[in-house]
Specification:
The protein has 311 residues and is α+β, with helices and mostly antiparallel strands. The protein contains 7 helices and 11 strands.
């Protein structure tokens, strides 16, 4: 009986009490932004390489037989090609169901998890902290050292979106059969899944996007002015306000599989850990902490962000 009651609340987020937080997210998080973490920093390339490698080998379990053993050559292009050709089998269709994938990553994907955390600690966390710094500077609060605790989803969710032009036997069916669109993601905003306004969405493709394989979102609640997360390439991430802005997919007629990971982040001061909507979602993932310190602004120099610790 208790579970049914929670599910009723979960499907009617407007009936939930507002989260109790110290502050709201900076206004910058109300809009989307593309984050490119691949830059002159060599370590960013190492992180991407290991995320791709461990998605192929550890998470999806492909590239470990004679036909595909070239996956072990340390080449991003090879990993991406394998992902674009990957077709979900019965086993991984079951694993990739909502909730199951989080259990699989937590228990079976140690290397993938470690490199995902490095992505958070080195790039996503500082990106979030700097948005708070920008807002503080507008309030002239720049003369003191501060600590920020960023919250990040662990484990992340992986999405494998096969092309509707390819059947499970890798045969092109565009000209031979009527195309049926199955398992399309329904248009939704994440509040209906128990997420709160203090969470920010990040969507990271591990394969190049195509207009029909990518994600679409609206710029403000109910506006339906759908913009495309395209073009994006591995090494780029779309940040968007998915809690209250609807998003959806289209039928993938690109002929290639799209593989992506998505996750949510927040700041400890903007997140209510006792929010009632989490009665459902807390079964699937945790919100772990990454702590940062910022230096005071001196003259024309901006405050720096230093990673201190992370779970």
């Amino acid at each position: 009986m208790k579970k049914k009651k929670l599910l009723r609340i979960y499907k009617n987020p407007e009936k939930l009490k507002a989260p109790r937080t110290e502050r709201q997210l900076p206004l910058a998080f109300n809009s989307n932004e593309i984050i490119t973490f691949i830059d002159s920093n060599l370590y960013s390339h190492v992180i991407l390489n290991n995320l791709l490698k461990n998605t192929v080998v550890e998470l999806l379990g492909i590239g470990d037989n004679d036909k595909d053993n070239y996956a072990y050559f340390n080449s991003n292009s090879v990993y991406i090609k394998l992902l674009e050709e990957y077709q979900l089998n019965t086993k991984f269709k079951r694993i990739c169901k909502s909730g199951n994938i989080h259990h699989h990553i937590s228990n079976n994907c140690k290397n993938f998890s470690n490199w995902y955390k490095k992505l958070i600690f080195q790039f996503i966390g500082p990106h979030i902290v700097r948005k708070f710094i920008d807002e503080d500077e507008e309030e002239n609060d720049v003369s003191i050292e501060k600590e920020f605790t960023v919250l990040y989803q662990f484990p992340p969710t992986i999405r494998v979106y096969n092309s509707h032009l390819i059947d499970t036997k890798n045969k092109d069916i565009k000209n031979n059969h009527e195309i049926t669109y199955k398992n399309l993601g329904k248009m939704h905003c994440d509040s209906v899944f128990g997420h709160q306004i203090g969470e920010v969405n990040f969507w990271m493709p591990l394969t190049p996007t195509h207009p029909t394989s990518t994600l679409y979102a609206e710029t403000s609640p109910g506006k339906a002015d759908w913009y495309s997360f395209h073009p994006l390439h591995p090494g780029s991430i779309m940040r968007f306000p998915g809690t209250f802005c609807r998003h959806k997919t289209k039928p993938n007629i690109s002929g290639k599989t799209r593989v992506s990971i998505d996750f949510r982040c927040s700041m400890s001061t903007c997140f209510d850990k006792d929010y009632q909507g989490r009665a459902i979602t807390s079964r699937r993932h945790q919100m772990l902490e990454a702590v940062y310190k910022t230096t005071p602004a001196i003259a024309s120099s901006k405050r720096e962000v230093h990673f201190l610790s992370g779970a």
